[in-house]
């Protein structure tokens, strides 16, 4: 099945450098499976591969401040799991569109530590018309 | 006639090297003048030992790469993106670089090996690598 291909072999990164390497590998795997994802969920009219790439990069960047290799391994494992779920069609089109195309602005409460980089203007803008 | 020329050349070559050798210690560029013909100057200190790919990338490839880079990094209109611009100076971090390489993979229909992807630092590097992979296909 698709998930057999996805297994990343070394679960324990010894150093931050190795964890970085694994992150880039994961990103490359995800980008290489974008064409099949677009095919499975019929996203051709909704989004371009470039937009999906930047969404994936944004998700990775959200956790860019982490320095503990074990935590990074855990995040990568979760990322791989999500990618496997998507590629083996365990999700549905509205999941993909809601989570990765439209984004979850306003649907999920912003946790302060994760969204430090979004400007205050944007935060207010998404919340209400009058500010 | 030939013997005269031969002896003339012999005397020239016996004289000239002494002068050029003494001058060589001062100058970087040595021009050897033998029988009136001067060869192009040879640099004693070679350029940094990067192995240049013999086939340079075509301008269209470089243009396409520049366009993709400009879009990916949202480079403002004033900044020039040329063959020699490094990704780091344009404001790309390592993830951006990987993303640009992925975008180029998709655009040109190639597959970049991981080791080659590590060595890409400038736009020209990327264009050369693309040319190599496209011609290998």
From TrEMBL, chain A:
Entries under InterPro entries matching the protein: Complex1_LYR_NDUFA6_LYRM6 (IPR045299), NADH_Ub_cplx-1_asu_su-6 (IPR016488)
Membrane topology: Peripheral membrane protein
Subcellular location field: Mitochondrion inner membrane
One GO cellular component term noted in the UniProt record for this chain: mitochondrial inner membrane
Keywords in alphabetical order: Electron transport, Membrane, Mitochondrion, Mitochondrion inner membrane, Respiratory chain, Transport
Top-rank lineage group of the source organism: Eukaryota
GO BP of this protein: response to oxidative stress
Keyword Membrane: yes
Main location: mitochondrion
Family note: Belongs to the complex I LYR family.
Protein name from the UniProt record: NADH dehydrogenase [ubiquinone] 1 alpha subcomplex subunit 6
From TrEMBL, chain B:
GO CC, any one term: chloroplast
Cellular compartment(s): Plastid, Chloroplast
Entry keyword set: Chloroplast, Fatty acid biosynthesis, Fatty acid metabolism, Lipid biosynthesis, Lipid metabolism, Phosphopantetheine, Phosphoprotein, Plastid, Transit peptide
Domain of life: Eukaryota
Molecular function terms, GO-annotated: acyl carrier activity; phosphopantetheine binding
Domain named Carrier: residues: 59-134
A Pfam family per the record: PP-binding
Family: Belongs to the acyl carrier protein (ACP) family.
NCBIfam families with a match to the protein in the record: acyl_carrier, PRK00982.1-2
Function as written in the Swiss-Prot or TrEMBL entry: Carrier of the growing fatty acid chain in fatty acid biosynthesis.
Record's protein name: Acyl carrier protein
């Amino acid at each position: 099945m698709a998930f057999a291909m996805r297994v990343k072999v070394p679960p324990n990164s010894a150093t931050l450098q190795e964890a970085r390497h694994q992150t880039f590998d994961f990103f490359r795997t995800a980008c290489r499976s974008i064409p099949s994802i677009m095919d499975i969920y019929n996203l051709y009219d909704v989004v371009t591969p470039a937009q999906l790439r930047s969404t994936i990069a944004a998700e990775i960047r959200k956790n860019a401040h982490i320095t503990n290799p074990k935590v990074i391994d855990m995040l990568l494992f979760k990322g791989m799991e999500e990618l496997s779920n998507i590629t083996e069609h365990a999700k549905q089109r509205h999941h993909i569109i809601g989570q990765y195309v439209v984004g979850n602005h306003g649907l999920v409460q912003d946790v302060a530590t994760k969204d430090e980089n979004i400007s205050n203007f944007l935060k207010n803008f998404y919340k209400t018309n009058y500010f | 006639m030939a013997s005269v020329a031969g002896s003339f050349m012999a005397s020239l070559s016996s004289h000239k090297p002494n002068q050029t050798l003494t001058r060589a210690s001062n100058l970087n560029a040595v021009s050897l003048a033998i029988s009136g013909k001067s060869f192009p100057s040879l640099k004693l200190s070679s350029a940094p030992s990067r192995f240049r790919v013999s086939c340079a990338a075509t301008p269209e490839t470089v243009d396409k790469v520049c366009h993709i880079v400009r879009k990916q990094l949202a480079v403002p209109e004033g900044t020039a993106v040329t063959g020699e611009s490094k990704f780091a100076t344009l404001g790309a971090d390592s993830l951006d670089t990987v993303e640009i390489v992925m975008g180029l993979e998709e655009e040109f229909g190639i597959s970049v090996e991981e080791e080659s992807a590590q060595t890409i630092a400038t736009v020209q590097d990327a264009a050369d690598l693309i040319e190599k992979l496209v011609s290998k296909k």
